[in-house]
Automatic annotation (TrEMBL):
<feature type="transmembrane region" description="Helical">
    <location>
        <begin position="476"/>
        <end position="500"/>
    </location>
</feature>
<comment type="similarity">
    <text>Belongs to the sodium:neurotransmitter symporter (SNF) (TC 2.A.22) family.</text>
</comment>
<keyword id="KW-1133">Transmembrane helix</keyword>
<feature type="compositionally biased region" description="Basic and acidic residues">
    <location>
        <begin position="9"/>
        <end position="24"/>
    </location>
</feature>
<feature type="transmembrane region" description="Helical">
    <location>
        <begin position="49"/>
        <end position="67"/>
    </location>
</feature>
<feature type="transmembrane region" description="Helical">
    <location>
        <begin position="445"/>
        <end position="464"/>
    </location>
</feature>
<feature type="transmembrane region" description="Helical">
    <location>
        <begin position="560"/>
        <end position="580"/>
    </location>
</feature>
<feature type="binding site">
    <location>
        <position position="62"/>
    </location>
    <ligand>
        <name>Na(+)</name>
    </ligand>
</feature>
<feature type="transmembrane region" description="Helical">
    <location>
        <begin position="355"/>
        <end position="380"/>
    </location>
</feature>
<feature type="transmembrane region" description="Helical">
    <location>
        <begin position="521"/>
        <end position="540"/>
    </location>
</feature>
<dbReference type="GO" id="GO:0046872">
    <property type="term" value="F:metal ion binding"/>
</dbReference>
<keyword id="KW-0915">Sodium</keyword>
<feature type="transmembrane region" description="Helical">
    <location>
        <begin position="273"/>
        <end position="293"/>
    </location>
</feature>
<feature type="binding site">
    <location>
        <position position="57"/>
    </location>
    <ligand>
        <name>Na(+)</name>
    </ligand>
</feature>
<keyword id="KW-0813">Transport</keyword>
<dbReference type="GO" id="GO:1903804">
    <property type="term" value="P:glycine import across plasma membrane"/>
</dbReference>
<dbReference type="InterPro" id="IPR000175">
    <property type="entry name" value="Na/ntran_symport"/>
</dbReference>
Length: 648
């Protein structure tokens, strides 16, 4: 049996590939770690990488969308399809991308030396991350706004005596009482001390409810009015963009300043930030859970969340919702996982990381469900309606409203959003700089600044009065069908075109042993089938973008599809370019652009120096290896060396 061999990444100097090295032509400068800011660098330690990946995988989708899907799809029964797709699609894709990025040590564009025809997949990843970064920082600006607004003795979203409040605004627990007063007035009575007097008709509570069930009773909490009329200053639709909100603009600017200084030195700076941004959300989630469970009506919400409805498992949409949630939650195909793992030491145990982070992501989703539904139960108690009615109003309530409704604006979402921002923007920067290292790496700080400024300017329409409609449209289309297409292409290229056997060899070079055959089955069959199923289901069941009850005009839907295709179109474009630039007949060109280039492989020379073939053995069964390379490649017998050592 061949001896186990592991490698470490050179952290002291740059290496050059010799021109006569087998399989590699010419000279290739590779990145390394040093004090020089021009180097690509690596994580300071394993914990920085682990926390960065954990923070990227755990986001607002875990905190809010997962609990909502549990409610809609059978409560606790939803965990069955959720765990199913976690095992068969989520974890395999997560492990694949961590291994892929760590082995090559490059960004999401340059890494497609593995199959140059598909370099467009890398550009598609960068484009998707670029688009999502724009509106994610606007989300950060919302949270920063609430954070600053909470530094007052009286929170502005708990009263109805502000200039922006309407006649429908009712404070706190008075919402329920206001509805009783409204019902009493409809039958000609006078409401006093919880009783309706002098009614002109003798109506029981049941008759009153039947009479009023189709009546439009409008009462709005000050929290919702603060969100709509003060924070958003919302217009009537996307056709009316209105003016810029300067408070949100300044918060957005502050968000980009934080992002810039966190990324200006690459992982050397962002790696330190994650110690706070990845751990603080868990602390605050725990605080919010304690706070939520002490509120009136909280347990009604919790029971609503965990009560299983087994009959829902017979509906195909429940299974598709679980698959989509797992896929988006873990963050595969954005390019961010490839980027973050590319900064790892070559022999980092990415297999262990993939399992721990994936299942931690799942556990966080379940935990966050208890937090959210304890809050929703309290909201239902305050408003005086069933828990189901709280959720059904307008689809589902904004997480910002939940934060403001139950706490003094604790910004737990801020850290999640910042981590997502770091991951996606670093994918954009790494993709471009690794593709054009000679031009861009010496001026990485300026490149980072330029992209931050560009994205700040592109986000200005999203902080206008009609900005929420634009943000929702970008969110709806920028990372939907396009992300699925990228993921399916990536999985098929690596498992079938490059080949699972070669990919397994690459993993053995890093980990010292082959992974189990389970991953090969997933990558070649199960995971592509699952991803194709999600893609087809998403396209067949596509509905145009909406915001609450607002329906977008047709031109907005068309614009959204153009935005979605702007990333995917890179795949055929770069495939055609690769074929045109290749030489020979069509089949010769096709073979050339679907095989790894000479530069493909680990970024550093000594990480490449591994012979996976069985070593030569002497008569005693001891491997004969080259201990010291010489001109004549003199072979040294380990058994003789050991005998000499034993006689000393």
């Amino acid at each position: 049996m061949a001896p186990t061999v592991t490698f470490g990444r050179d952290s002291e100097e740059k290496t050059k590939l010799p021109a006569d090295r087998s399989g590699i032509d010419g000279e290739c400068e590779t990145p390394s770690v040093s004090s020089d800011g021009d180097d690509r660098g690596t994580w300071g330690n394993h914990m920085e990488f682990f926390l960065s990946c954990l923070g990227f995988a755990v986001g607002l989708g875990n905190v809010w969308r997962f609990p909502y899907l549990c409610y809609r799809n059978g409560g606790g029964a939803f965990l069955i399809p959720y765990v199913f797709f976690l095992v068969f699609a989520g974890v395999p894709m997560f492990f694949l991308e961590l291994s892929f990025g760590q082995f090559a040590g490059t960004g999401p564009i340059t890494i497609w030396r593995v199959a140059p025809m598909f370099k467009g997949v890398g550009f598609a990843m960068v484009m998707i991350s670029f688009l999502v970064c724009i509106y994610y920082n606007v989300i950060i600006s919302y949270i920063l706004h609430y954070l600053f607004a909470s530094f007052t003795s009286v929170l502005p979203w708990v009263t109805c005596n502000n200039d922006y409040n309407t006649a429908d605004c009712v404070e706190g627990g008075h919402v329920k009482m206001a509805f009783e007063i409204y019902k009493c007035s409809k039958i000609g009575g006078d409401y006093f001390n919880g009783t309706c007097f002098n009614a002109t008709m003798n109506a029981t509570a049941a008759i009153m409810n039947e009479t009023l069930q189709n009546t439009n009773f409008t009462r709005v909490s000050p929290t919702e009015e603060y969100w709509k009329h003060f924070v958003l200053q919302i217009s009537d639709g996307i056709d009316d963009m209105g003016g810029i909100s300067w408070s949100l603009t300044l918060c957005n600017l502050l968000g980009w300043v934080v992002v810039f200084f966190s990324l200006v030195k690459g992982v050397k700076s962002s790696g330190k930030v994650v110690y706070f941004t990845a751990t603080f959300p868990y602390i605050v989630l725990f605080i919010l859970l304690i706070r939520g469970l002490t509120l009136d009506g909280a347990m009604d919400g919790v029971f609503f969340y965990i009560k299983p409805d087994w009959s829902r498992l017979a509906h195909p949409k429940v299974w598709m919702d679980a698959a989509v949630q797992i896929f988006y939650s873990l963050g595969a195909a954005w390019g961010s996982l490839i980027t973050m793992s590319s900064y790892n030491r070559f022999n980092n145990n990415c297999y262990r990381d993939a399992l721990i982070i994936s299942f931690s992501n799942c556990a966080t989703s379940v935990f966050a469900g208890f937090v959210i539904f304890s809050v929703i139960g309290f909201m239902a108690h305050e408003i005086g309606v069933p828990v189901a009615d709280v959720i059904d109003q307008g689809g589902y309530p904004s997480p910002f409203l939940l934060i403001a409704f139950t706490t003094s604006g604790l910004p737990y979402s801020n850290s999640y959003s910042l981590l997502l921002q770091f991951g996606m923007l670093e994918a954009v920067l790494s993709g471009l700089i690794d593709e054009f290292p000679t031009i861009l790496r010496p001026i990485k700080s300026w490149v980072t600044l330029g992209i931050c400024v560009l994205q700040f300017l592109l986000a200005l329409p999203m902080v206008s009065q009609g900005g929420i409609y634009l943000l929702t449209m970008v969110d709806w289309y920028s990372a939907g069908v396009s992300l699925m297409i990228v993921a399916v292409t990536e999985c098929l290229v690596l498992s079938w075109l490059y080949g699972c056997d070669r990919f397994y060899d690459n993993i053995k070079m890093m980990l010292g042993s082959y992974p189990s055959i389970w991953w090969k089955i997933c990558w070649k069959v199960i995971t592509p089938v699952v991803l194709l199923g999600i893609l087809l289901f998403t396209m067949v069941n596509h509905t145009p973008v909406t915001y609450g009850k607002y329906e977008y005009p047709d031109w907005a839907d068309s614009l959204g599809w153009l935005m979605a295709m702007a990333s995917v179109v890179n795949i055929p474009i770069f495939a055609i370019i690769a074929l045109v630039q290749a030489k020979g007949s069509f089949m010769e060109r096709l073979r050339a652009v679907t095989q790894p280039t000479a530069e493909w492989g680990p970024a550093l020379n000594h990480d490449r120096d591994l012979d996976l073939s069985e070593p030569e053995l002497n008569e005693k069964g001891v491997p004969v290896i080259n201990i010291v390379p010489t001109k004549d490649e003199e072979k040294v017998d380990l058994s003789k060396s050991m005998e000499r050592i034993s006689t000393v």
